[in-house]
Write a structure and sequence with these properties.
Chain lengths: 597, 204
């Protein structure tokens, strides 16, 4: 297919062997790339019920047909694996430039299986055979130091996926850092890489250009898209000026900014950690991914530390979620998470779980107290190094709370910690959390875009009418975006009508919006079937009990709970799933999903 | 399926707006949404500008059911749009400027700033028998796979949206662009700047 190299690099770490694997045209047409392709490959190649930290588990990194073209925000790429946190399928998405340069080296993706006997890293260099190099001197280093060392060894012009001590220590909330400042953050993917003794994957020196079917037409479409990105307020100013932390004040005013482990939805002190405050006090310069006109990232300095972010979710998870409103403490904890290679959301929510356990008298650790700024960095360190209470927090909130017989204290779905929108204030998003194939994630079906940000138009955030229908559409759309691969934020200005045109110009294949949505539906159902195979079911399509029966006591979302059961029943019906939430054989046949498990 | 109060209010608001704007006569036009795996659509011959709760009819999404006895005449087009496009809401109206221009042009190029930012152009199609659902249900979805609306020549507009408000904006936006184009054409003078040519909308 045009727009792709049509081949993956398969890495067998057991035998330290590389092979080029061609991807059949039909699979590319049906799954496109990125998340879709990763899901297809994982479901075909991974046997059932494999422990996610077993060497047999796979890490599948992949770009899509947009990568390296002139399509705006094409720098993102995808990772698919089985998560040690959820025991289900996991798709993740990261920005920067690694994905584009992997493609320039001639590979649409890298499929990593097996495990090394000793720590090592992989070098993929354009025009050369990939190699594995030992990394005993890098093992134990944080992600920033590792990147610096790799630059000394391999040259400055490299991109690297790196795990920190958390990944090495198989912490279940460990991330894979991308050039030390971006991340495949969620789902414990860093632990999967750690279980393979793989410290880093480095790309350099690629120069292959993307073969575009109709570059003149693509240029015309892209020009129109760029004009749109320039005039839509969110992409024109909100994100560029304030970054994602622009959300803090907005969500707090709506009374759905989770405070103290989702016990409250509003706190006037939240403004102390807002995007405006970050801009004033921390921001050094703006920064963006490859081919991105939005540039939502920012390099910051907090006290004697510097780094990137914090992003909205990180500000919240490590700040007001813990009762902490000191911007320096929050930012430094965020930097530390990046250095140790820890997911900031799961880290914050697992710590807040501990703080609530402490508050309930179920745990005795004075460092775990809402509002305690002095011990936060130490706790992050303990998680990464698997020391003391950090051993249990690093297992994720579900196992942590279970240990103290208080599962209701864990704010998770399917084991993945929830992000920074209290579902009681955004009912469609609540259903999105419950039905997300990767667990507690807002991006899988971002209903808040309609319920909060009125994109394309506002809908009532507290009613259920039409929400399951809209959610199915949003989930299918997102599966496509993650497969093309394009940034979610481009969606504030563009949409599938643009994306279909770009894809048609790149590949020469007659894609339209409906064809893309069918592919999205196919991907979503294949993920679901994968999860069913791994033992996940209707019991997992739920929310922590407080969202179902305990209304918020104050703020603009006061008095509401999530009427999940009614929406879930409708959602299954609309999806064409049976009453247990399992895709029917007729549906799978219609979507051309052939099961080999 | 019980129709929630919030849905009724939405239909009432949008229906009233369409009639007040002069896009529909007292009993013409129809609006619908996709909800709960069903279609909720205006009842046939109900007054769009003054809808009652019982003027909303719940219909099967996938195939004809007995609701077609009372549902809008254009139910077949709405259903086809839900089945064949990403529509979550549909509006059919008889916008006068859109209809007028459809009788003299093959597509309406948006020459106003808002129109070209949002839409670029408004496609027009010929349908053998323009009023009634049968022929339009075949032709309209083909266009709405890639555009937010289409004008059936001499008849009216079909617009989709993610919500009913979204579809309404597409209907009113199309009419605004058509009106500006119509008024500009009336002057008989050349455009000092034609954005549509700069962006080459013919290929959109």
């Amino acid at each position: 297919m045009k727009g792709l190299n049509n081949k993956f690099l398969e890495v067998d770490l057991n035998h330290e062997k590389f092979s080029e694997v061609p991807i059949p045209e039909k699979i590319l047409e049906d799954y496109i790339g990125g998340r879709g392709l990763g899901v297809k490959l994982l479901s075909e190649k991974l046997p059932a019920n494999i422990d996610p930290l077993d060497p047999k588990n796979l890490l599948i990194f992949s770009t899509g047909p947009y990568g390296g073209t002139i399509v705006p925000t094409n720098g993102r790429f995808s990772l698919v694996t089985k998560s040690p946190l959820t025991n289900g399928i996991f798709y993740s998405n990261s920005g920067g430039t690694f994905g584009v340069f992997m493609k320039k080296c001639g590979y649409d993706g890298i499929l990593v299986g097996g495990a090394l006997k000793e720590p090592a890293y992989i070098i993929i260099e354009g025009g050369k055979e990939p190699i594995i190099k030992e990394a005993s001197n890098l093992w134990g280093l944080n992600t920033e130091d590792t990147l610096n060392q790799l630059k000394e060894i391999e040259g400055k012009k490299i991109n690297a996926l790196i795990i920190g001590p958390a990944g090495e220590n198989l912490v279940k909330i460990a991330s894979i850092m991308n050039d030390a400042t971006r991340a495949f953050g969620r789902g414990g993917v860093g632990a999967v890489m750690g279980s393979k003794n793989l410290k880093a994957i480095v790309v350099k020196g690629g120069s292959i250009k993307v073969d575009v079917h109709n570059p003149i037409l693509l240029k015309k479409y892209v020009k129109v898209a760029q004009d749109k990105i320039k005039v839509v307020p969110i992409t024109r100013s909100s994100l560029p000026i304030f970054g994602t932390s622009a959300l803090v004040n907005v969500i707090n005013i709506l009374g759905m900014f989770p405070i103290n482990n989702f016990q409250k939805g509003f706190d006037e002190r939240a403004t102390l950690v807002s995007g405006e405050e970050i801009n004033k006090k921390l921001t050094q310069e703006r920064e963006g991914c490859y081919a991105c006109p939005i540039r939502c990232g920012r390099l910051t300095k907090a006290g004697n530390m510097n780094g990137k972010g914090p992003e909205y979710e990180s500000v919240w998870a490590l700040g007001p979620n813990l009762g902490i409103y000191d911007l320096i403490t929050v930012s430094q904890a965020n930097y530390l998470c990046n250095q140790y290679g820890i997911d900031t959301i799961s880290c914050g929510v697992s710590i807040s779980c501990g703080m609530e356990l402490q508050e309930k008298g179920l745990l005795n650790d004075p460092s775990l107290k809402f509002g305690n700024t002095s011990s936060l960095k130490k706790i992050v360190e303990k998680i990464a190094n698997k020391e003391g209470i950090g051993v249990h927090i690093g297992e994720g909130s579900r196992l942590f709370a279970n240990k103290y017989h208080s599962e209701e204290t864990a704010m998770h779905v399917k084991g993945l910690e929830l992000p920074a929108y209290d579902p009681r204030g955004t009912i469609g998003q609540a259903l999105g959390y419950a039905t997300s194939n990767r667990g507690g994630c807002h991006l899988t079906g971002y209903m808040a875009s309609l319920e909060i940000f009125a994109a394309p138009k506002k809908i009532d955030r507290f009613t259920t009418a039409g929400k399951p229908d809209l959610l199915v559409l949003k989930q299918n759309q997102k599966a496509i975006e993650d497969s093309l691969v394009i940034c979610t934020f481009a969606g504030w200005a563009l949409g599938l009508d643009y994306y279909a045109r770009f894809l048609k110009a790149i590949t020469g294949i007659n894609y339209d919006v409906m064809k893309l949505l069918e592919i999205g539906e196919r991907i979503y159902n294949l993920e679901k079937i994968f999860n069913v195979r791994e033992g996940l079911g209707k019991k997992d399509d739920t929310l922590p009990p407080r969202f179902l029966n305990k209304p918020l006591q104050d703020g603009a979302s006061k008095g509401h709970v999530v009427p999940l059961e009614t929406m879930l029943e409708q959602y299954y019906y609309i999806r064409g799933w049976d009453e247990k939430g399992i895709p029917t054989s007729e549906l799978l046949e219609k979507l051309n999903i052939r099961l080999n498990f | 399926m019980i129709i929630e109060e919030s849905i009724y209010k939405l239909f009432k608001k949008v229906g009233k707006h369409l009639v007040r704007q002069g896009y529909n006569t007292s009993h013409s036009g129809n609006i619908s949404i996709r909800s709960g795996g069903k279609i909720i659509i205006k009842r046939r011959s109900a007054m769009l500008g003054d809808l009652e709760l019982e003027d909303l009819v719940v219909c099967d999404l996938k195939e004809e059911d007995s609701s077609s006895l009372i549902a809008s005449t254009e139910l077949g087009v709405h259903r086809a749009l839900y089945l064949e496009t990403d529509a979550m809401a549909v509006i059919h109206a008889h916008n006068p400027y859109c209809v007028a221009l459809s009788l003299i042009e093959d597509e309406i190029t948006c020459i106003d700033a808002e129109g070209f930012a949002l839409y670029k152009k408004i496609p027009i199609i010929d349908v053998e028998i323009p009023a009634g659902a049968y022929y339009t249900s075949i032709e309209v979805p083909k266009v709405l796979k890639n555009y937010p609306f289409v004008i059936v020549r001499g008849h009216g507009i079909f617009a989709k949206g993610m919500t009913l408000d979204d579809a309404l904006q597409n209907v009113t936006g199309a009419e605004q662009s058509a009106k500006i184009r119509y008024l500009t054409l009336l002057t008989g003078k050349p455009l000092l700047r034609d954005f549509s040519k700069e962006k080459d909308f013919s290929q959109w």
